[in-house]
Amino acid sequence: MALVSEIDLGTPAPRSEQKVSLSIDGRHIAVPAGTSIMRAAAEGGTQIPKLCATDSLEPFGSCRMCLVEIEGRAGTPASCSTPVAEGMIVRTQTDRLARLRRGVMELYISDHPLDCLTCAANGDCELQDMAGAVGLREVRYGYAGENHLADRKDESNPYFTYDPAKCIICSRCVRACDEVQGTLALTIEGRGFGSRVSPSAHENFFDSECVSCGACVQACPTATLIEKSVIEIGQPERSVVTTCAYCGVGCSFKAELRGDTVVRMVPYKDGKANHGHSCVKGRFAWGYTTHRERILKPMVRERIEDPWREVSWDEAIGRVASEFKRIQKKYGPRALGGITSSRCTDEETFLVQKLVRAGFGNNNVDTCARVCHSPTGYGLKTTFGTSAGTQDFDSVEQADVIVVMGANPTDGHPVFASRMKKRLRQGAKLIVIDPRRIDLVRTPHVAAAYHLALKPGTNVAMLTAFAHVIVTEGLVNEEFVRTRCDVVAFQDWAAFVREPRNSPETMASVTGVPADIIRAAARLYATGGNAAFYYGLGITEHSQGSTAVMAIANLAMATGNIGRPGVGVNPLRGQNNVQGSCDMGSFPHELSGYRHISDAATRALFESDWGVALDDEPGLRIPNMLDASVAGRFKGLYVQGEDIAQSDPDTQHVIDGLKAMECVVVQDLFLCETAHYAHVFLPGSTFLEKDGTFINAERRIQRVRKVMEPRNGFADWEITLKIAKAMGYSMHYDHPSQIMDEIARLTPTFAGVTYEKLDALGSVQWPCNEKAPAGTPVMHMNGFVRGLGNFVITEYIPTDERTGPRFPLLLTTGRILSQYNVGAQTRRTQNIVWHQEDRLEIHPHDADQRGIRTGDWVKLQSRAGATSLRALVTDRVAPGVVYTTFHHPDTQANVVTTDYSDWATNCPEYKVTAVQVSPSNGPTDWQRHYQAESAQTQHIASSLAAAE
Amino acid sequence: MRRRIFVARDAGAIAVGADRVAAAVAEAARRATLDVEIVRTGSRGLYWLEPLIEIETRGARVAYGPIRPEDVPGLFACGFLDGARHVRGLGDTESIPWLKRQTRLTFARCGVTDPLSLDDYRAHRGCKGLSRALTLKPQEIVEEVARSGLRGRGGAGFPTGIKWRTTAEAKGDEKYIVCNADEGDSGTFADRMLMEGDPFQLIEGMTIAALAVGASKGVIYCRSEYPHAIATMHAAIATARNANLLGPRVADSAHVFDIELIVGAGSYVCGEETALLESAEGKRGQVRAKPPLPAHVGLFGKPSVVNNVLTFAAAAWIMAEGAESYNALGYGRSRGTIPIQLAGNLKYPGLFEAPFGMSLGELIDDIGGGAASGRPVRAVQAGGPLGAYFPRALFDTPYDYEAFTKRDGLIGHGGLVAFDDTVDMAKQARFAMEFCALESCGKCTPCRIGSVRGVEVIDRIVKGENREANVALLKDLCETLKWGSLCALGGFTPYPVMSALTHFPEDFGLAPELAEV
C-alpha cells in the first residue's frame, strides 16, 4: 500500500442533518448546516490554504491563511471559523486574498529556519506546502530581525523532540492535548512574539504532565514536534492500516514504513474505535518487535534445568508431536491441553482450540480471559443473553451519567478515557466506585460528582445497596421492566434488594462508604438521564466477580439504561483480543459463539465440518489443569502467547503445576516466565508480521494486516498448523481469511463476516449476520438476546480472604499507563523510563505506623507468599488498603495473591488479598531464588548462540 | 447649621491631592469647631481644577479650585463656607462655562452625589430606569434601547439594541451580562470616573440589560490598575444587594440578578471582548475567533451581552427618560451624547459630555484650550492607541462614528490625545507597532509577528535604509494587519501608523508624494 495521506477537511463534521446550499468560487454545493466554509470548500474539492486548522480540532482562527471574501460582508473572515449560510456567495481566490496570504506567509518565514532540505519534516510539512501554495517568493523583512531561531530543542521525551525554533504557534498541539487527549499538559506561555508552547509550567516534556499520547506530534504541521524515529530514519514511503496489539480499545493505526522498517505508527482517522487518537503504548511502544531479546529460532531441551538448544523448525515441531503423542498414549487423551492467547488473532485462537478439540481429542482449552473477564461472559450471558459489552465506544458521547467502577481508564484504556473525559467536560456527571482515587476522580476540567472509595471486595454490597435505593425510592423504570424483562424474576429481585439488610445504611459499614453518599449516587444513576456503566477487572477479579457483573446488569435493567446509545453495561476489556479469544471458543465448555459443548446440534455442526468426533464433556480450566498436573493426571501443555507463570495467581502453585508436566510447549516472542518451565520454545510472531483480526471491547472485528515478513519465519497460525499436521490432524489454510470463512460458517454471530467486508467497511461489530449485515453497534435494542432480561439475586457474600491481626491490610492491584500487563512488551521499549519498577502505594497513616517512607523497601506478605518492593506513601489509597502494579516480573505480585476465585468462573481474586507490610532490606529469599533459577532456565547453549 | 463640603474621591483627584485637601478641611473645621460634613463625590471631570472643593450654599454649589492643602486655612478665613470670594473661587459650579456647555446625561450625577449613597442616587433620579423596566416586557426594553439609537461606547459603535435582541433570542439555560470595564485606551478615563462617581448607574444599567435578555448573572471585568474603582464597585454591589436591588428578588420582583466583579491581570487585549471572556473564565487572555458571537456563545459558552460601562450607564438613562429624549440628540447615525475624554497636551483636560457632532477643532482648541505647552497642537490621536492621528487639516471632522471612519479614523471609546508641534510622528508610528507587539495575545500571526516586524521596518525607514522599498513593505504589512488580524488590536494598529505616514511624511524623512496611500 502506498503512503496513506488522509484528507484533512480542516474542521470537524457538524452533526446537523439540515442542508445549506451556497456558492464557493462560482460552484454550488450543499452541505450540512454548521459546516465551516473551509470544510464545505474542501468537500467540493477546493483546498483553502490553512495552517492552524485540522479536522480533529475545533476551529481556532489564528493562522489567518484561510481568509475568504463573502459577498455582502465586510472584511475577510476566516473560513475555518465561519459557518456556511444559505445562499452565501464565497470567493476563496482573489487578488486581495492572495496578497494577504502571501503577506502572512512572509511573516511566518521571517521567523523560521531555512533548513528545509535537512529538516526531518521535509516532504511532510504543511508550512512548506502552504508557502508553495501561496507563492511566497521572497522574505523582504530579512533575517536580521528578532527571531526564535536559537531556541533550544527539548529532546527529553524518548519518542519525540520539540524544536521551538520551528514552531509557528498554531496551537494545534495545545488544542490536541486539550480537546483530543484531555490532559491539558500544554499551554502557550507568554504573549505576543514571546508566545511559546510550554509543557506544564515551563518544564520539559518529560518532566511535565504530558502522557506521550502523541496527539500533539500528530497535530503539528511542521517539524516542531516530530518522532525521533522519523529524524533517524527519514520519511516513510508506504502505509499499512492495522490494529494495535495492546489493550482492548483496539486502535486503528497506519504503520508507516521505509522498506521493511517501521518508521512510525500513526493513529488512523477512520479507525472506528479511536477516531485518530492513540496512547503512548500503541503510538510509540512497538520497539519490542525488534528487541534483541526476541527469540527467533525454535529451541528444545530435555529437562528445564538444561540449557536451551536451538534447532530447526522440523525438529522442534517433531519433538512437540512425539512428546504429545507419547503423553496421550501413556496418560490418556485428556492429559494434554492448550491455552489460547488473547494477544493473538481470532484466527490463531480459533486454530488452537480446534487443535485441542479436534487434534488432541479433548476440550482442555482455556484462555487468559479466565483471569480477567470470564465473569463478564458469564454474568452478561445470564442476564442479557450475550457474553459481551452492550455498546460501542461512540455511545459514551450520549451518556449523561457515567459510572466507572473497578476500572482505571486513563491508565488502562487511555484512548477511550480521552473520549469519556471529553464527554465529562461537556457536562456529563461522573460516579467513580473504586478503592483508589484514580486520576479520573479529579483531572483537568473533570471532577467526579461522587467517589465511592469502597473497601476492596465489597462491590456486590455496594451495587445491591444501589438497587435498594432504586427500588425503595420508586426509581425503577417500570415500563422498561414490564415490557423488556422477566417480571417474575424482577419481583423476586426487588423483594430481595428491598430488604433492610441491603440498605445503604446497613451496607455502609461493609463498604466503608457513608449511606447518604451511596443514596445520592444511586439516585443520580437512576435519574440523571442516559446512564452508562463502565467497569474493569476491579469488578470481575473477585470471588463474587460474576455476581457483581449481574448486579450491574440488574441496575441497568431496573432503570431502563440498556438497549440504546448512551447507556449500557460496558466491560473495558484488557487485552487487544480478549473479546475475540472468548468469542472463538477458547473456554473448555464452549465452542465459538458461546455455544455449550454439550449441545449435540452444535457439536454435530463442527464434527461434520472438521471431520472428527468431539468430546461432549467440558475440559479443564487453567487452574484445574495445574491442579491435575500436580495430581499427576495432566502432562502436556501448548501455551500460545500467554505467561501464566507471571500473570496467574499464586505463582508457586503455577510453578509447581508446570514443573510437574512432561512437555510444556511455549510459543512466544520472548523467554517469558512460563518459558522457564518449558521443554520446547517456538518463536512467535508479532502483530506486525501477520494477517488476521482482533475484536475489541465493543465487539468490533478489525483487520490486522501484515506489515512485514515474520522475523521468526512463520506467523503463529502457521505454527499451530505445523503442530496439527505433525500430530496427524491436518488442517489446511492458505490465508487467515479462510479461517475466518470457517468461523463464519460455524458461528451464527459471525455468519456475515468476511475479509472483503472488513476491508470495505473498515470494521464490523458482531453480531454480523443476515439480520445485521453491517454489524451491531448497540445490542439489545429491541429485545434482549435471551428474550426477556433476567434479574438475578445478588446476595453479598464476603470473600474468605479477610484481614486479621496477621494480615491487617488489603492489597489490590492495577496497571499504569506506560506499561502493559506483565510488561513483556513495554519493558522492552523506552516506556521503561516512566516506570522502572512496581511500587507499593500505602496510605500515610499505615506507613507511619510501620515507619515506612517513600522509597523504602518493604516486604509484602500474604498467607500465600511474600515479595518485596519499594513503597510510595500516598493518600490515593484509603487507610487499610495497599496497591501495586504488576508490570515487572521481579516484583512477583502474584506470589502474594491467593487461590481464591470467582465462584462461577474461577476468575482469580486478584483484587483482594489480605497482607501485612513491613520494612525490609531488599528482595525476599524467594525473589532471589527465583531470579537465580530463571537466569539458569533462560540459558541458551553457548555453542549454538556463538554460531549464530 | 451643618454645612456640606464636597471633595472628589475620584482617583484622578486623589492623584493631585484631594485626600490631603479633604483632611485639611476636616482639620480646619475641627479647630474652628464648625459643624461640617465632608461628602466625597465623584469628579466633575474638570481635571485642571482638581482638587476642587464645593460648598453647598443657598441651594447651589460654589466651587473653589484647584486647592492645595495649604490653601485651606485661607479658605476658612475668607468665609468660603458662605460662598465668599477667593482667588481660587470659581463661582457657582453649574455656571462654570466648561461644565455649562456640556449635556450631562450619563454623567449627570457624577461629581454631584455621594457615589455610595443609595438615597442620594434615588434622590437624583436613580433607579427610575429600573423601576420602569420592571413594568415592561423584555422585548419592550430591547426595543426602547434600540429606538434610542444607542451604540456601544466601547469603541465599535455596534447598535446596542441589536446586540441585546440577539442575546435575548439566543437559547440558553443561563445568560450573562458582562460589563467591559477594562478601560485600557491611552487618554481615556470615563469608565473609571463613572464607576468611582456613580456606580449604581452601572449596576442599574446591567440589571436592565439582564431583564431585557433574561440573564441572572452579571460580571464586571475591571482592569487591575483601577483600585479605587474596584473598591467603589465592590461597596456599591454590596449596598445594592442589601437593598434588594441585586439578588434573588431584584427590587422585590421575581427576577434574579447578581453581579460579580472580576479584576484583570494587566493585559490590554483583555479589553477585547472575546479575550475578556476567556480571561473572565480564568483562562489565558486570548482572543476567540468570531463567529460565534458572544451574544450566542459568550461567557462559559452561554449567550452573553458584552457592553462597555458607558453603554450600560446610558441604557439606565434611556430607560428612565425615554428613548426619544436620547435619540433627539446627536449627529447622523450617532445618537445621544458621548462622554469625550480630553487628554494629552491640553490646557483644559477632562471629561466633556456632549451630543455627537462637535468638530474636532472645537473640542481641541476651544474646549481643550489648545496645548498646555502653549505651542500649537500638531496632531490629535482619536480613539486610543489604535486610533488615527488627525492633523489640523482634518480638524473640521465632526465628532461622529461615520465621519471619523470616512477619514480613516475612529472615535473608539471617546478619547482624544493632543500633541503639540514637538511631536515626532515617526516615533509615534513606531510606538503604535511597539504597543501592538507588547500587548498582542500572540494568537494570530499578523499581530504576533507583524507588529515586531513593523517596528523593525519603521526603524529602517527612519534610518534611511532602502526607504522606498521599506515604505512599500510597511504599507503591505499594514494591509496584512488590517485585513488579516483576528481582532482589533492587530486590525487597528495600521490606523496610527498609516495616518502618521500619510499626514506627516516629513517625520519619516519622506517627500509628501511618496507617502500617499
Tell me the number of strands of chain A: 36
Give the terminus-to-terminus CA distance of chain A: 34 Å
Rg on CA atoms of chain B, Å: 24 Å
- Largest protein interface, residues of each chain: A-B, 38 and 38 residues
Sheet with most strands of chain B: 5 strands, mixed
Strand percent estimate of chain A:
15-25%
What is the 3D form of chain A?
globular
The number of helical elements of chain A comes to 31
CATH superfamily of the largest domain in chain B: NADH-ubiquinone oxidoreductase 51kDa subunit
Strands of the largest sheet of chain A, in order across it?
A: 13-12-27-26-25-14-15
**Tally of separate helices of chain B:** 21
Number of domains of chain B: 4
Helix content of chain B: 40-55%
Instruction: Give the class-level CATH name of the largest domain in chain B.
Output: Alpha Beta
- Overall mean confidence score, pLDDT of chain B: 95
The fold-level CATH name of the largest domain in chain B is Rossmann fold
Low-confidence stretches of chain B: none
**End-to-end CA span of chain B:** 68 Å
Notes on the protein architecture:
The complex is a heterodimer of chains A (948) and B (517). With 948 residues, chain A is α/β, with parallel strands linked by helices. In chain A, 30% of the residues lie in helices and 16% in strands. Chain A is built from 31 helices and 36 strands. Chain A starts with 18 loop residues before the first strand and ends with a helix. Chain B has 4 domains: 98 residues, 3-Layer(aba) Sandwich (Glutaredoxin); 210 residues, NADH-ubiquinone oxidoreductase 51kDa subunit (Rossmann fold, 3-Layer(aba) Sandwich); 91 residues, Ubiquitin-like (UB roll) (Roll), CATH 3.10.20.600; 91 residues, NADH-ubiquinone oxidoreductase 51kDa subunit, iron-sulphur binding domain (de novo design (two linked rop proteins), Up-down Bundle), CATH 1.20.1440.230. Chain B is 40% helix and 16% strand. Chain B is built from 21 helices and 16 strands. In chain B, helix 11 links the parallel strand 7 and strand 8. In chain B, helix 9 crosses helix 10, helix 10 crosses helix 13 and helix 18 packs antiparallel against helix 19. At the A-B interface, helix 2 of A face helix 17, helix 18 and helix 19 of B.
